[in-house]
Amino acid sequence: MENSPSANRALISEHGLSLLVESDGFRLLFDCGQGHHFLDNAHRLGISIEDLDAVVISHSHYDHAAGFRDFIESGCRASDLYVGKGFFDRKLAGTPPVFTDLSAGWDMAFAARSCGHLHIVEGTVEIHPGILIHQGFPRIHPEETIPSRFVRETSGGIVADGFSDEIALSIDTPRGIAVISGCAHPGIMNMLDCIQERTGRNIHAVIGGTHLSEADSARIERTIEHLKKTGAGIIALCHCSGTAAMEGLGEAASHLSPGGTIII
Q: Residue 53: which region, alpha, beta or left (left: phi > 0; alpha: psi -120 to 50)?
């Protein structure tokens, strides 16, 4: 599932993200979109997602997490569900006194009875040889700010959302690690720097959302330069990355030698 329509018109697009990841026989679902349409797309593609080794949900906004209920109620199962610390806080957007609920629409009790094991990730956790989940990203790049409209509800009231629940994947490949992000609310530069430091590996691929759709031109230019400096052979941005960032990367790639960055 992704925002942009496919050339395969049998597939449905919506504001959301869902990716099937397969590595050495280990199969995981990364995010579940906002509803059942990712299940329809899997069916149209002839892909079975009825029994998976794991479901990993990048954060608890509805466009990444709400479809998990549809996944379970359709009869699909996964041995393990991984979410980040703070996932079950109620997520909101707006300014006082009017807020929109952006939450997943299910709670910890639903999660616990829907899978074999519920894991709330802190720091870095290996879930399969060569596959790591990362949580807790230091804010190194000050320009990577979070829009003030994103807030969360806690026992102490409504506070700014720092997206402590946001997690990302890194997967070992012979050429380096592939990093998969959902929205990268903590900042894709912050996340890449942190993951590279934790793994000690070079970055071969960056895949997923980067939440540059609301960024100004200066931040987008800095991010593009940062992505290029990683030396990644594949940069596949989608979902919330925004037209300006995708076009900027496309222009940058046109000046590279053959075998350089690939934009999907």
A: alpha
Positions of the chain with pLDDT lower than 50, given as ranges: 256-257, 263-264
Q: In the sheet where 176-181 sits, what is the strand order?
A: 124-128, 131-135, 167-173, 176-181, 203-208, 234-237, 262-263
Which segments within the chain are labelled E, that is strand? 19-23, 26-30, 51-56, 77-84, 90-95, 98-101, 117-121, 124-128, 131-135, 150-154, 157-160, 167-173, 176-181, 203-208, 234-237, 262-263
pLDDT at 260: 56
**Residues 189 and 220: beta-carbon distance below 8 Å:** no
Per-residue model confidence as pLDDT tens digits over 28-76: 999 999 999 999 999 999 999 988 999 999 999 999 999 999 999 999 9
Q: Provide the whole-model pTM.
A: 0.95
Residue ranges and CATH numbers for the domains of the chain are 19-263 (3.60.15.10)
Structure tokens at 13: 């697009």
Please give the single-letter amino acid code of residue 102.
L
